[in-house]
């Protein structure tokens, strides 16, 4: 009888540690050098230089509000089903995640799905099936954004159940566990509604901080840095403020991935003689909402002989010609942000979106900057 107790104890301990490995985010902190791709960009998957990335997000799968299942439109299905094998031709080690939702997705549908155990299960089970059947290595939730305390609580419950489900699926199939990530507001505080940080930390491998869209013609009557890393005197939103907020709320830095845009916003200046940040405008320029991809910005600069300015205080760029003013991130801003992310001990960085780059210029600079950055750790 006494001889069986040590064996039982060993079995119990072994099972406990195995369970912990399944339900907790991986301790092997794989760096994330990521970017999103979406079919509406009309940028061919075959043109993605995946050698610059460790992870690529295929966006977006949809949520069917009737049955709460994740679906891929018939138009996108052929591209989604071959996405992984296509990007792995140039980089066999790149991991792919199927992203669900997006900025124009029905927020009410996500809130409704997350509010009920049955509908959450429908979402979770269908997401796992779709990821596996289309060859993805993980799943990414882009619910923008849970906007009440109840929705945030349900968001946390959804994440916990998702983690348990992918762990169980991996155990039953003997396949590597699907990665789980989410694109979140740049701060843990969404206009006084707090994210369930502990649920995020225990359920997701990492979160993608959308540290951009701080200023734009659709909601800003003055020019401003669309993706400032720093804000003078904390006068406005910034990537650094968001990172600090998440960490102070309890999320480990190693689960934070800093986001930056491969696009900018164009305004029409009220006064061409005041081409600076926080200048008065009369609305958007170039496109209806002012958005313009980095490749198009480079072309605008050349075609119009535009003046370019890098602001090292906020870590952002702008250019102007006549009354057209564009705020964006160029190479120096991207490199500075990548170095910041590594020095802060973050998991990595990501961009939206790969198709807006200019011949992979920003992606190349970002990847090299991460690899070249040396983290100096002080001994006390």
From TrEMBL:
Keyword set, alphabetical order: Glycoprotein, Glycosidase, Hydrolase, Signal
| Range of residues in the leader sequence | 1-28
| Domain of life of the organism encoding this protein | Eukaryota
Q: Show the Pfam families listed in the entry.
A: Glyco_hydro_18 (PF00704)
Matching entries from Gene3D superfamilies are given as: 3.10.50.10, Glycosidases
Q: Which GO BP terms sit in this record?
A: carbohydrate metabolic process
Per UniProt, residues of the GH18 domain are 31-373
* InterPro entries, per database record: Chitinase_II/V-like_cat, Chitinase_insertion_sf, GH, Glyco_hydro18_cat, Glycosyl_Hydrlase_18
Q: Does the keyword Signal apply?
A: yes
Q: What GO MF annotations does this protein's record show? A: chitin binding; hydrolase activity, acting on glycosyl bonds
Family per UniProt?
A: Belongs to the glycosyl hydrolase 18 family. Chitinase class V subfamily.
- The protein in question is named GH18 domain-containing protein
Originating species: Brassica campestris
